[in-house]
Design goal:
143 residues; 4-stranded antiparallel β-sheet; alpha+beta; 12% strand
Length: 143
């Protein structure tokens, strides 16, 4: 069951963004980054109140993804990443990004907080951050 609405073109956009943001981190890293992306469409809170579609999430400005702003995003969608995107749209979640709305790649260790949000863990080079439950209950909802 899909947790967000996503057409085939949306799947390709999501797949391209997953690849651009986390290809160097392997399948698990791409799934974690993708969790964050899907969560932003689901969230309806904080910086994501007006984000209801995959394209809105991918091209959000300000507050969007570096890959879109710096050009890494403009690679084609490959079958591998499209399959990962489908898994995420169908509700798969992975720790530490299960409820994350943000991730970034610091020079050193993960700060405990980033822009007031709490660190939930690190995978390879990316640190993941989720909101406090009361600030964004929709991201914690079950499917």
């Amino acid at each position: 069951m899909a947790v967000i609405k996503a057409s085939e073109e949306d799947m390709k956009v999501l797949a391209r963004l997953i690849r651009a943001e986390a290809e160097g981190e392997g399948v698990q890293g791409m799934l974690l980054a993708g969790n964050t992306m899907v969560n932003r469409v689901r969230a309806n809170c904080l910086d994501f109140e007006d984000i209801r579609t995959v394209p809105q999430m991918a091209f959000q400005s300000p507050g969007g993804f570096e890959a879109v702003q710096k050009g890494y995003f403009y690679q084609r969608a490959r079958d591998k990443e499209i399959r990962l995107a489908r898994r995420l749209v169908n509700g798969e979640r992975f720790q530490p990004a299960e409820f994350s709305l943000w991730f970034f790649r610091p020079e050193g260790s993960c700060p405990a907080q980033w822009w007031g949000q709490w660190n939930t863990g690190r995978y390879k080079l990316h640190c993941f951050y989720q909101p406090i439950h009361n600030d964004c209950p929709s991201v914690f909802g079950t499917f």
